[in-house]
Amino acid sequence: MGLNIVVGMLAELDESELDTSEPDDLAGELCDDFRAIGRALAAAGLPAWTEPDAAAVEAAYFDMYGYAGLHTLRRLAAHLASSGELPPPAPMEVAVADPLLKDTYSRGPRYGVEIDEGTRVIGSEHEAGSAYDHLIHHSDCEGFYVPVDFAAVFYDKEISGGWVGSSQRLLEECRGIAARLGLPEDLDPWGDEVSAAVEADTEGAEGWRRYGVESFTCLQVMAAARHSVATGAAIVLC
Question: What superkingdom does the record give (predicted)?
Fold first, then answer.
């Protein structure tokens, strides 16, 4: 199974899955997570948010280039945060093992809030700068981004995936990467141009075409974030 991103997850469940009174079914688990996110936002002093009713949202799927594809995009973010420069293109197996990316994961966010019995602030907004915390510091297989604009990523062990990010900040960070790549934001991720870049050898390529997988992933994440902001629904990684 590969990584998928869904916005409007509740809208995709059939009636048999929408009995939120059963805590062990998918809808019940999702709603438990959504309520926990609401509590965490309140504990961090952030604006309130609730997932829209299923009937009010047009759900959308945004397939990823596997789990590794997300890590290749995060690698670009880690290098931009560290040096302000894009790293050289690398095969996927090399990119996901990038020492700087691994060190960035280990160090944790420049600005975060940990929710437990109380709240613990990690770093500061000033320290965060262009750290790409919302893109980098998040589970790669589950978890949520919500359409609330907040600077600090936050962690709550009661929520699937732990880390919760802001859809607005995720979009802003990916737009920053796209700008550095020279990647048009309105490019079709499934179009021939992107597909050719994904499959091609990077030697001799220019601009964003040197980073085919990263560009595809960036376009998909931006599309998911835009849909989340437009609908008020969470981004769900699954």
Answer: Bacteria
Number of independent structural domains in the chain: 1
Q: How does pLDDT run across 71-91, given as a tens digit for each residue?
A: 999 999 999 999 999 999 999
Write down how long the chain is. Answer: 238
Of 40, 21, 10, nearest to 161 by C-alpha is 40
pTM of the full predicted structure? 0.93
Q: Which of 129-138, 201-210, 215-224, 229-238 has the lowest mean pLDDT?
A: 201-210
Alpha-carbon distances, residue 116 vs 11, 55, 214 (angstroms): 31, 33, 35
Q: Which residues contact 24 (CB under 8 A, 6 or more apart)?
A: none
Distance, CA of 140 to CA of 98 (rounded, Å): 16
Distance in angstroms (rounded) separating the CA atoms of residues 203 and 205 = 6
Pick the closest to residue 85 from 124, 133, 125, 130 (CA basis). 130
User: What's residue 78's pLDDT?
Assistant: 98
As a 3-state breakdown, the chain gives helix, strand, coil percent values, each rounded to 5, of 50, 15, 40
List the structure tokens of 63: 């397939």
The 8 Å CB, 24+ separation contacts for 18-21 are 18/54
Q: Are strands 60-63 and 111-115 parallel, antiparallel or unpaired?
A: unpaired
Domain that holds residue 103: 4-237
Structure tokens at 58: 């047009």
- Residues linked to residue 146 through DSSP beta bridges, in sequence order: 166
How far apart are alpha carbons 145 and 167 in whole angstroms?
5
**What CA–CA distance (Å, rounded) separates 222 from 216?**
10
